[in-house]
Amino acid sequence: MRRNTVASWVTAILLVATLSSYSSAEGLNSLSSSESKAGWKLLFDGKTTGGWRNYKKDTIGKGWSVVDGALTRTGGGAGDIITAEQYEDFELSLEYNISPGGNSGIMFHVLENARGAPWSGAEIQVQDNVDGHDPQKSGWLYQLYKASEDATRPAGEWNHLHIRISKDGSSVHMNGIRYYKFTIGNADWKSRVAKSKFADTPGWAEATKGHIVLQDHGNQVAYRNIKIRELTPGKPVVDPIDRKLALRPAIAFPNLEWDGWSTDSDDGRVRSFRPIVLTHANDGSDRVFVATQRGVIHVFPNDQKAKRSNVFLDIESKVVYKDRQNEEGLLGFTFHPNFKENGQFFIYYTTRDRPQTSVISRFRVSKDDSNKADAKFEEEILRIAQPYWNHNGGTIEFGPDGKLYVALGDGGAGNDPHGNGQNLSKLLGSVLRIDVDKKDAGKNYSIPEDNPFVGQPGALGEIWAYGIRNIWRLSFDAETGLLWAGDVGQNLWEEINIITRGGNYGWNLREGAHPFGRKGSSPREDLIEPIWEYDHEVGRSITGGVVCQSDRIPELKGAYVYGDYISGRLWALRYDAAANKVISNEGIPSSSALQPISFGSDQHGDAYMLVVTTNGRGIYRFERIVKSAGTR
Asked: What Å distances lie between residue 160 and 92, 176, 178, 223, CA to CA?
């Protein structure tokens, strides 16, 4: 490489580091609160080369130095460098910046008893995919596994690699895009090794524990934000909590039978009970309403001794729901703030009258029976075409301002293929805010004049906030008015956001607080970061919750109670809105068999958890763990 090219690349590193993702000293080469709690550790502090040395050497070569917070190969005498420790099962997260035409690599399970270069470990390629000389592209597991797409950013820009190496499954992600999965040592692995050009190299890719290596291929390269977490196959990672609360979920309304529901369907298959919304009418009646995903709404008194529900409304004949496409159905249900006077309530559901179409409709209570809806009345408010069956969002909630807020997913599939999240000309990937008490010309609702994008060319006025992947669920804190959202992640991160007027929450430029895809973005002033996130070893599908405002369990009052549908973990998060800072994330002990599909609140602000069940016992609330006599 010519000297002036090298100088230009080093200058670019300095510039990009200044403008890029972790521009603050606190963010670069540091761990977030969630990462630290979940067991991540730094392999590079951004200040020294400590913890690294050359292969088969006690020190590090003079060609490696720290340049503006990056471990950088700047010149000759560098050589391959290795970690001080050896690792067996682990996750490795790092960013790299490769020079034009440059090449490097990341090896794992490297032993120092091999001859010459560290050939005992497999290599994940690092190179400039545009002008690089090697047909093996960046992020590929050299000679073994390759990606079906190129998610890298150009030479001179930072790319993020997430590498999981474990006996119970390994994977590589480039800039948040999953490249491939593999299992070390299985038949497929051995077959690929046998066909590689290293097949005759004794011991190549056979070690199951060893050093991590950053390779020197004679080109300029920089690494930063190098983090590792050791894994134990078959066991979950550390829960990212400050402490465990002495609480547990317990079945609520244990004697309740659901009117009209049976485990047996017409075709003889087991029919699950899928409660999706638990709420109240805010009319002083202290009734509990539970809507099921199939389209039936039940009502019963808020009494733990309640024995039977009444069917408030049954629109199952209008609702699409399939177990294998379970992000459709009745997804939202809320009462008008003046329900006591006007009897109105609203439902978001997937309609049968057109494929992949969501509908928001106004309904009203019967004039003759407050525990029955008027089955003949429905006024369609809004209809939204969905390109796919998943990521339909669906939560609808009235805010303190009396306006209806609607959470819409990005339309589905994966990675937001249509770019809806950042497109203000589409409703998808947004939170809407509409006025259902007025009607604009040609609409059964009006667009509030103070919505942030009213009058902006190319933007839809209904949009309140955007950059959303798939909010599952949305809720207002009854005391503070804050709008909370749990946004389900793509491949690596789940996140919690506070939704504000005009906010852009980053998808699909960012997943959580991390750049996503080839066009991914570093933090920007116009992109709002989540207040909390957790990675996919902790849980893989956030279920947004509610802020508990009940005095029944003081430990939960004022906390945002939420969970993860896949791992079954439950938490209570406390947030200081004035400081924009999470105070604590506390764990609620629970069985992984209880997978929260939703949360809800009753008239008193008590929090409930909803789960899918085949016995009808799908409503839980929280109680203290009482230790038996003699236990410590």
From this structure: 11, 8, 12, 10
Contact residues for 489 (Cβ-Cβ < 8 A; gap 6+): 469, 495, 511, 512, 536, 540, 542
Rounded Cα–Cα distance for residues 379 and 268 (Å) = 35
> pLDDT by residue (tens digit) across 258-275?
999 988 776 767 889 999
Chain segment 224-250, per-residue pLDDT in tens: 999 999 999 999 999 999 999 999 999
**CATH number for domain 3-230, candidates 2.60.120.560, 3.40.50.720, 3.30.450.20, 3.40.50.300:** 2.60.120.560
Total length of the chain: 632
* Residue range 389-439, pLDDT digits in tens: 999 999 999 999 999 999 999 999 999 999 999 999 999 999 999 999 999
- The rounded distance, in Å, linking the Cα atoms of 485 and 496 is 6
Please report the pLDDT score of residue 264 as a whole number: 78
Intervals of CATH 2.60.120.560 along the chain: 3-230
Q: What is the DSSP letter of 496?
A: E
Q: What is the mean pLDDT of the chain?
A: 94
Write out the H or E segment, with its range, that includes residue 555: none
Taking domain 243-624, whether its CATH number is 3.30.1380.20 is answered by: no
Strand order in the sheet with 607-611: 247-251, 619-624, 607-611, 596-601
Pairing of strands 463-466, 430-434: antiparallel
The least confident of 10-19, 282-291, 316-325, 339-348 is: 10-19
Q: Which two tokens stand for residue 594?
A: 């209880």
User: Contact, 91 vs 107, CB < 8 A?
Assistant: no
Parallel/antiparallel/unpaired status of strands 514-515 and 510-511: antiparallel
Phi, psi of 60 (to 5 degrees): -105, 145
Q: Kindly report, as residue ranges, where domains of CATH 2.120.10.30 are found in the chain.
A: 243-624
Instruction: State the Rg of the chain over Cα.
Output: 27
pTM of the model: 0.94
